[in-house]
Each structure stands twice: as C-alpha cells, then as structure tokens.
Amino acid sequence: MAVKEEVVDILNTIIGEDISDQMDDDFFESGLLDSMATVELLLDLETKFDIQAPVSEFNREEWNTPNKVVAKVESLIG
Amino acid sequence: MLNLQPYADPKYFVILLLALLPVAIGLYFGKRLNWYEVVVSLVFIFLMFDGKKYHEGVALVGYMIWQWLLVWAYTLYRKKANGTVVFYIATFLSILPLILVKVAPAANWTHVTSLLGFLGISYLTFRSVAMILETRDGSIKEFNPWLFLRFMLFMPTISSGPIDRYRRFVKDITTVPDRQKYTEMLEKAVWYFFLGFLYKFVISYILGTVILPQVENLAMLSASVHHGWTWWLVPVMYTYGFDLFFDFAGYSLFAVATSYVMGVELPMNFNKPFLSKNLKDFWNRWHISLSFWFRDYIFMRLVFLIMKKKWIKNRVTTSNVAYIANMLIMGFWHGLHWYYIAYGLFHGVGMAINDAWLRYKKKHHVPHNKFTEAFAIFITFNVVMVSFLLFSGFLDKLWFK
Question: How is it modified after translation (chain A) (predicted)?
C-alpha cells in the first residue's frame, strides 16, 4: 500500500469517519483531531512506518491537513 | 533610587519607547542592533530588581547561572547518550528552584523565599524546562550560550510571559523582518499599546480597584450574619473574573507590543476567551501560551507515555487521567493553597466531562444551531466564572480567615 493510503487509513480509524475527500482541510480547526488523537496518530505512525516523530517536533502548522501529514511521513521515511 | 516595574505606569512606557527607538530605526532600515538590544534589556532588568528589590536581582543572577549550567551540561550529555534517568534528573533540577520557592511560603521557610525568589521565576522555568525536553527529543541539538541568555532574559516577557518557544524565538531574533512586515508589526504594536491602556489602566482599574473592594466588603459583612453564604458572591465573582481578564490581557498586550517593536513576533495570550463554546475551546483562548505549554509538555507527553507503555488500555480513561494530572499540576504551579489546587481539579474534571459531552453529541447527532451555540457560550462563561471565584482565594478569606 502506498504511504498516502496507509496514512489516510490511520487517520480514518482515529477520527472515526472517512476523511479521504478532505485531504486539504485543517483538522485542528474543524476539531476532528485533538491533542489526544494527535498522540495516537504519532504513535501509529511510529509503529507503522518505523519513524521517530517526537511530540516536540510536532508543529501544528506543518501537520494540520491529511496531505501535510502524508508529506511529513514521506520526508521522515526518505 | 530609580526602580521601574514593567508596564506599571506612564513613565515606564515613555522611557521604554525612547530606549527602543534606535532598535526600531535599525530594524526599519534592515539592521538588528544586537548589542544595543542586549544593553537596553539588561538596564531594564537591572531597574526592575534594584533598590529594595536587590535580593531578587541577586536571586535572578544565581538562577540564571544554575539554568545555564544545567541546560549546557544536559546538551553535552545528550550528544553522547540518551538515558532516561539523566533526563528526569535534569528536568527535576531545572524545576527545583521553582518548587522550593512555591513550597517555601507554606512551609514558612522565609529565608528560602528571600534567597531564591524573584519576580518571573515561573516564566523563566517554563522556558528552561521546555529547552531540556526539546533537547531530549533531539529537536534542539546545540547549546548556544548567547542565544540561551537572550531567550531566557528577553526583556518584554521576563516578569509574566507570554511564554515563547526557543526555536521560534531564535528564528525571530537572528533575522530582520522585511520593511513591509515590520511596518505592519509596528502598526499592530501601536494598537496593542492603546488597547492595553484601555484594558489595564481604565477597565481593570475600575473593576479591580474601585468596584471589587466594595463588593468584597459587602459580601464579607453579609456572610458574617448568614453563616458564610451570601448573594454578594455573585457580583464578587463577575467583577473578579472580568478584572482578571482585563488586567492580564492588558499586561500581555504590552508585552506583545513591546516585542513587536523589537521585531519579535511573540505569540498572543488571549483570544476572546469569554466567547468559548466549551471548556476545551476556552483553554485554546485563555492564557494561551501557558495552556499550550501544558498541552505540549505535560498533557501530550503524559498521554504518549501512558499509551506507549500501555499503562492504561482504555482511551477515555487515558485522556481523563491526563486531563486531571495536567490541570492539577497547573493548580499546584499557582501556589500551595487549597483554592489553587481545587481550581486545577475543577478544570481537570471539567475537561473530562466536556469530552464525554462531545462524544455523546457526536454519537447521538444532537441538534446544533445559533441558539444552542449561544447557550453553550453562556454555560461555558459561567462555569469559567465559578472557577475564577475559586481561584481568587476570596472564599478562603470568607470562610476560613
């Protein structure tokens, strides 16, 4: 599976609804993702892709849409 | 001897802006006068802690040496190894002076207070601890003694924040905003100064200095004949709550405006908190730099730890435990008084209830419109006001003194 699909999959599970049609929506603004869900996301990404994404690297402006998360993960794997 | 408390009176603003004029002219022409900024900052910090407050000044110097050595040593260590115990010891040592100062009044250690205490110790500790945590994460890799001092002793925020972040601050202080951007910052600074004057010297003066003592007296009188309960608590509560906001938001506007003049885009501390739709929303709008500090360095880290170590399986329990721990720590930070701790507990439990409601609302598709939203704002506002009454310590005076 491509990175994008796997990230969307993880996000869907955490958020509890399908977000694949809102890839550029700010999920902090819409309240879909809170701090708690953010930590779950970081942990899931860590296990799934074997990447290190510590909490203090988590800058909300760089992680606030599904597409940006995908880009971040790709850069961390690369 | 001349002693200047930050933003305390009109004289301070005149002296401050005159002293910062060369900085502003420099920035306008694309040049940052680093040495001059440092000298001005040190002079203002000296004037804060001279005269009768000289012992606070001495405490500040000692505190800075302590933190400087600690962060430096930890960064050196972190380049070679990453032991968990060393990290916890470093964090503890960094908080230790603050803990001693907070425990001292309750334990009656007057010598500790006069030896270690100074105005702003909490806010400096937030900055220093955050640096240790980010060094642990590998987000900060080098110790730059010069930038460390500039970050810790950034003059506009030294006494009460807003709490900036090291990496964000360094980006601003080592560059110069372009002319258009800087002009916009100056325009905002002027607006913030005047809004701050209105908040702090007009509204907060009327509420806190004129009205509050009167209603507090009436409440005390009435309570003494009515077994500790009185309807006068209602005006005390609202007056105190609004005064708290206008006083602190006014101060924060001054700090942000001053820092804009210095070309540093300090984060804002308040965003219409009394229009919050729920408690979670409130903490995104009230004393933002503090609540985000707690969110990032305590709540999220605690949740991360609990989940990674699988201490608690249930997701809801995890977040509730973290909310209550987070808010209790915030309560203790305010001081070792029952009403601060109760205030922390109140908000911790409040966040848990709030989350339960949000889950219920999502699951059962509770109708949502302008009226329900107005009702939500009304409820949140009053819940917050009750918590401020607790926070004020007035109930302690009313019932136990």
Answer: 4'-phosphopantetheine is transferred from CoA to a specific serine of apo-DCP.
